[in-house]
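dumping this here before i forget
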Amino acid sequence: MKKAFSILVFLIICLGAAAQDIVSVMGRVVDEDTNRPLSAASVNLDGTNISIITNRDGDFTLKMPANQAEGGNIVISFLGYVIKEIPVASFPGEDTPLTIKMTPMSLQLDPAIIKAIDPEVLFRTVFGRIKDNYPTEHVGMTTFYRELIRKDSNKYLVLNEAVVDVDKAPYNNYASDRASIYKGRGSINVSPSDTLFVKFQGGILSALAIDMAKHPFAGIDVFSATQEYQFSMGEIANIDDVPFYTLNFMGKHQLDDFQFKGTLFIDTESYAIARIEFGMDISDLNRDEAAKLFIVKMPTGMRFSMDHADYIVNYKKGGDGKWYFDYSKTDMGFYVRKVRSLFRHYYGITSEMAVTDHKEEALVIDSKERVRTNQILTDNIHYFEDPDFWEDYNIIQPDQTIQAAIQRIIRQLNRRR
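structure:
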């Protein structure tokens, strides 16, 4: 492909009403056979929108109003595992986690049928049905966005969070998504020893631009995809007992292009994309060149080498049968060292956008308030600060999941509904 994305699960966002009496349950979700922690498993209070996902260690803490927790059940689900339902009353005290062992699901679709599917035909079918499976009118959304820039293993240089309004353009035309910042907060932690200050340009719009169901597939038009990428069928995956085809893709490695590799999770009935996982295909031979695609200003005397650029996009099926943009994540890393120096530093950039509310009608965003592609949130976040909005939650906790961050400000978000 001639250009790379400038920046890239299943989950449910908690939008439950705030309550004064809160009950908390803690748990760790693991594989039944191997005890391997299951990261990003969905944990939900049955019958409500109160949910969270597990962290990298499989741990979670779910808070809920006491009146809803009483007699309720916690539902845990993870891709490829049998859903588990546990009464709230079965959890120990607030400081004691419950270990939840998930059972791998035995799939019922005939493997022979899966192997007989032509992957290129499936790919063309999926993108041929985009206008049937995704909204063909503007959709208004409220989203929660966060971006983190880390130096080496433990120093956060930049922490930004914002409530962002989005006008999601229809999937049947080339109109662009629009966004505006409602409230924001940020923190910069730079010392005199930090000779390089990394800034993240266009992060909010990049979080929307990686929506490959809306924008060109992996940076190229769909008609050219089968010439530049090879496709293969993977095993059937399951999300909440619903089977999904997995369609793997990787570049044919044309010498003048950077390409991607990844997996599409496709609904077996509607052929809608429910999830996309992909990353830039970087080899040891092109790491320096790959870095140049992402770095707008490269200081003299510094050498940059790309480590990785990985992306996730998740969609959620609505009551009307359409699939809606629900979550995206980008995770990039690169090394920097001075020319003729043996020492180098690692910089990691992570951004996430999660939809917290869909509007019943399109959202009009004034041109003066729109986020621009060249906007650096760090330079502008102070315009959107409002201590009264964040109340007691002005401190950003970088190790907290985005869903946990949203849970902390549920009351503030509910004021806008």
